Amino acid sequence: MATPGPVHEALAELELTDHHCHGAATAGLAPEEFAALLTEGAAWPGVSPFDSPVGVAVRRHCAPLLDLPRHAPPADYTARRSALGPREVNRRFLTAARAEAFFVDTGHAPLPLTSPAELAAAAGAAAREVVRLEQVAEAVAARGVEPDAYAAAFRTAAEEAVRRPGVVAVKSVAAYRTGFALDPARPADAEVTWAARHWLASGGRLRDPVLTRHLLWTAVDLGLPLQLHTGFGDADLRLHHADPALLTDWLRLTSGTVPVLLLHCWPYHRQAAYLAAVFEQVYLDVGLALHHTGPTRCRAVLEEALEITPFRKMLYSSDAYGLAEFHHLGALCFRHGLADLLQDRVDADELSLPDALRIAAWTGRDNARRLYGPLVSAPARDPSGRPTRKV
Amino acid sequence: MATPGPVHEALAELELTDHHCHGAATAGLAPEEFAALLTEGAAWPGVSPFDSPVGVAVRRHCAPLLDLPRHAPPADYTARRSALGPREVNRRFLTAARAEAFFVDTGHAPLPLTSPAELAAAAGAAAREVVRLEQVAEAVAARGVEPDAYAAAFRTAAEEAVRRPGVVAVKSVAAYRTGFALDPARPADAEVTWAARHWLASGGRLRDPVLTRHLLWTAVDLGLPLQLHTGFGDADLRLHHADPALLTDWLRLTSGTVPVLLLHCWPYHRQAAYLAAVFEQVYLDVGLALHHTGPTRCRAVLEEALEITPFRKMLYSSDAYGLAEFHHLGALCFRHGLADLLQDRVDADELSLPDALRIAAWTGRDNARRLYGPLVSAPARDPSGRPTRKV
Amino acid sequence: MATPGPVHEALAELELTDHHCHGAATAGLAPEEFAALLTEGAAWPGVSPFDSPVGVAVRRHCAPLLDLPRHAPPADYTARRSALGPREVNRRFLTAARAEAFFVDTGHAPLPLTSPAELAAAAGAAAREVVRLEQVAEAVAARGVEPDAYAAAFRTAAEEAVRRPGVVAVKSVAAYRTGFALDPARPADAEVTWAARHWLASGGRLRDPVLTRHLLWTAVDLGLPLQLHTGFGDADLRLHHADPALLTDWLRLTSGTVPVLLLHCWPYHRQAAYLAAVFEQVYLDVGLALHHTGPTRCRAVLEEALEITPFRKMLYSSDAYGLAEFHHLGALCFRHGLADLLQDRVDADELSLPDALRIAAWTGRDNARRLYGPLVSAPARDPSGRPTRKV
Questions:
Q1: Pairwise CA distance, residues A48 & A46, whole Å
Q2: What CA–CA distance (Å, rounded) separates B372 from B368?
Q3: Is the dihedral angle over the CA atoms A340, A343, A347, A352 positive or is it negative?
Q4: B94: nearest Cα among B74, B78, B116
Q5: What is the interface pTM, i.e. ipTM, of the complex?
């Protein structure tokens, strides 16, 4: 561990922009629900979800916020969590995260989660919305549409969705649905119609490669920053299909259009760093890995991710989902890991202190401001009705 | 290096379960045989096999057990080794490993190796057997079988093999033969017959993709834990085809059946950790990499492998083959590396000492006990004749 | 950081062999030219190229050689660089690199670069030439050739190119053109003719898979060491197609022929290490990554690359291109990183000091001497006119 110094102080004080997260659960959680949220989806009989790096981190860094000792036993933790109730639990962790703003993916809520406005209120911070495009497409399909009208209907629905007040970005989970080993070209109308015919007839989630390509190209047309889940996620993934290097040809074709934010990336964060180093429009974060690997490893992951990444290209996100612990823990891991690595470089005279402070502020907040536009106090509908990065 | 503390003491005293290794050579080794065993198969003219990380580790950590100084010259090492003779060399290193049990893959012995019973006797430990299924299949082929009888003959032979006393697991080297980029589905009978016809006519090792899939699905039916070589190995491998992430679809299909143990994994240990984190039946180790990378790097490899791995999912193996040095060195690297990383976390108050001790015992011994069943003093044939995890 | 010790002293004094680099720019550089060279090709509006790991390293370690303070502001740096002029800038950095020899890839010079002789004169060192085979092939095409004469014409041109005085190796950038997921077999004459017909008619760079395979097999026939770009490079790359593990089948087929040097490798340096550990003819370096990741990370990259690499198989290269800063910075990063990791092992008694000094000298100089042949004072044409490793 590095000796704490001015970079630690600066990062402790910095109000972060968490540019990709989800809501926190609004209802009390049964033990198996808590377990499933703690471990990215899995609750296995006979194995405590606390017996994991993230479980250790929660007992160490979250228990004190629930008035428990460090390393509190799991049973004490869940009992105290239940006793306090979701509103108080969320308030404590969300305020502890000390974020200026949360950008909330609202497209995946199998259990009741805080809306962006509720998250903002609980945290005493701003919140903005990230529109998940697969959800928009699936809503179009659910409403009923003719195959040859799907492309236009999806585009219209997406345009409407991003016109909602507070929307700052769109997101795709193509990594989960098809992976990135796709033909990079924009599909022809006839292909889209053909694929839509098949999908609309068979139903289910959007998993068709042609429609996924169409979705990604429609995202380009929308003009907002595009967030892409890459790397680590739950069991629905084929991890090797979520290697962002597979996006290379598509990034070449879309060069000069919208910013593309590679989310999470682990264990392909070096591949993501390469893309951010050579493509102007590419940015990355190591969200999700921060709290799942915990504070003892997030410095290592950040160091690998930053090996060649330009300092204007790295952002912070928690990718917290369901448990407000993760909004806090992601921020804590990020602050500690980044401060340790930067302060050590300052102490070794490999980096000047002003540069270190600048890199810390960029990564934690200012790169997001630059990319998504500044926050204004009252997000409102843009009178022109057109997508805008200023909210 | 971490300051030694109670976790080091606990791991030094813990009798490990080496859940995947091979026998030690029973005859004296010519220099080129020793060289080939030292370096995973290669003995190159003009290059000393000692000029490698594993060679440095052997001179440092094995020489003293042969009554030589640390860092003894290679010529002294091999001379002393020859003078002591294989029986005494094996005894010294196998007892130094301080294992409770060795689980021995008996399916690959181009040179004479200790049987599990001989290994047990030399080590003063228990030994159990791991049945390599490719060897079973190749023995069936060698005995002669009609193509349309191959599937049943292989199944019968495998069932008989695992019914032998002391068998605790089966193993596949599909990584070497076809790699993991296979159709995950169980092949139809007609496909198996067709593929068997081709293989039985042409002979050689089992390398057919259909028969490999059939082998893996037969392993599922056997009900025992299935060990899969993944990642690093000798020159017969296509490394990128041994990335365990390629198993994802097959793991999804076999969910709820047998435990799957991903062996070695390096350099894809993070991919293996992901699989262990999201699939209930998946476990991993970083055997082979421990002694090949040596004690200066095994902490780093373990830390990467443990970034997201649930602590119930990591096991210890040496994957020692031929040289008893490796049974010792694997254990030594594992103990040092794991103790260093856990003790540092305790010292930084990121982990409680009781938790650290529990994780150490789980990883070194108890996860194997839980998975393979407890050792009993006298392994004996199960009277029912059916496969069982209790031996 | 390690405590400096005798290994640091030895590596500080060692005259390196930089076995793969390019020339330094001979003309003054406009700011955007400097920016593009600093960041592997990209100069983005509104983003300073100095805001990157390599930019930080240049300000820290190169500014003092231009009489500026450490961490000098970018504007001061570029102003001072311009004021000194390219000749003086090159002289300062090239002499600071303290290399015994530079092996210079002369095949890519969109802007005017020092010839090997000019580089040698500026550095006070020897220089040798590496022939880029794609350039030879493209020159053959540019001169005009019938498709069925292409194979022989390319072979003759390549043989002539390597007969030039001072040529020590050939190089291919197949990683950029087709990637390594190629049929490993030598293509038949008819295939080559057919592919040449297509290429010669359409023009452009050599990107045809059959002709790339032909080029690689012709390289084998030439008998000189073959350098292959792998891993990290500029935006023309598909990174995942440059994973050297994809070369496995080709390496198996070409076993026993020419040495193959895997250049750079990051982030696939562990895959490269595996290949170097199991194939006699394979060597690697982590050039390019050294200065792009900078001195704070090159130890980590070297440690990963050396985890299993035999110590006779690792070489030093800078892969410096255009900016003489990189000839210096590569050497500095290499010296610091390797000395830190070796000295720490000595201090922990994991490696003897004589072994550490031997490994340092091998890696920095002697492995290259052994592989490419000793330097003689006056490189001259071999009277037999046949390729030779002695220059």
A1: 7
A2: 6
A3: positive
A4: B116
A5: 0.95
The reply to whether omega before C267 is within 30° of 0 (cis) is yes
Structure tokens at C288: 């390019």
- Kindly state the average pLDDT of the residues C116-133: 97
Tell me which chain C residue has its CA closest to the CA of residue B54: C308
Q: What would the pLDDT profile of C316-359 be if each residue is shown by its tens digit?
A: 999 999 999 999 999 999 999 999 999 999 999 999 999 999 99
Identity of residue B85: G
CB of B32 within 8 Å of a chain C CB? The answer is: no
Contact (Cβ atoms closer than 8 angstroms) between residue B60 and residue B70: yes
Residue type, A338: L
Within 10 angstroms of residue C303's Cβ, the number of other Cβ atoms is: 18
B66, two tokens: 């042969």
Instruction: Please tell me if residue C200 touches chain A, with a CB cutoff of 8 Å.
Output: no
Q: How far apart are CA C124 and CA C214, in angstroms?
A: 38
d(CA B286, CA B268): 10
Instruction: Give A47's contacts in chain B (Cβ within 8 Å).
Output: 310, 312
Q: Do B277 and A51 touch (CB under 8 A)?
A: no
C308 vs B contacts (CB less than 8 Å): 52-54, 232, 289, 292-293
Question: Is B234's CB within 8 Å of C303's CB?
Answer: no
Residue A346 has phi, psi (to 5 degrees) of -65, -45
Centroid of chain to Cα C304: 19
Are the C-beta atoms of residues A324 and A290 closer than 8 Å to each other?
no
B19 Cβ under 8 Å from any chain C Cβ: no
Phi, psi torsion values for B144, nearest 5 degrees: 95, 125
**Res A178 pLDDT > 70:** yes
Q: Tally Cβ neighbours within 10 Å of residue A67.
A: 10
DSSP codes of every residue in A9-78: HHHHHPPEEEEEE-PBB-S---HHHHHHHHTTT---TTS-TTSSHHHHHHHHHTGGGGT--TT--HHHHH
CB C206 within 8 A of CB C133: no
- The 10s digit of each residue's pLDDT in A311-363 is 999 999 999 999 999 999 999 999 999 999 999 999 999 999 999 999 999 99
Q: Is the Cβ of A355 closer than 8 Å to some Cβ of chain C? A: yes
- Judging contacts by C-beta atoms under 8 Å, the chain C residues touching residue B235 are 252, 278-279
- Block residue for tokens 């005995």: B143
- Residue C2 to chain B, least CA–CA distance (Å): 11
Question: Which of A3, A40, A50, A51 should be substituted to probe chain B, the one whose Cβ sees the most B Cβ atoms within 10 Å?
Answer: A51
Identify the band that residue A378 occupies on the pLDDT scale cut at 50, 70 and 90.
very low
How far away is chain B from the Cα of C230, in angstroms, using its nearest Cα?
15
Asked if the C-beta of C345 comes within 8 angstroms of chain B's C-beta atoms, the answer is: yes
Burial A98-122 (b: 16+ CB within 10 A, else e): bbbbbbbbbbebeeebbbbebbbeb
Separation of alpha carbons C186 and C170, rounded Å: 18
Q: What stretches in chain B show pLDDT beneath 50?
A: 377-391
Distance CA B171, CA B153 (A): 18
Q: B56–C246: do the CB atoms touch at under 8 Å?
A: no
Q: Give residues with Cβ within 8 angstroms of B45, minimum separation 6.
A: none
- Inter-chain residue contact C303 with B297, CB threshold 8 Å: yes
Measured between CA atoms, the residue of chain B closest to residue C304 is: B297
Chain B nearest-CA distance from C358, in A, is: 10
CA A338 to chain centre: 18
Chain A, residues 55-84, CB within 8 A of chain B, namely: 56-57, 60, 70-71
B144: exposed, middle or buried (Cβ count in 10 Å: 0-12, 13-18, 19+): exposed
- In angstroms, the CA C359 to CA A375 distance is 55
Amino acid at A44: W
Report yes or no on whether pTM surpasses 0.90.
Answer: yes
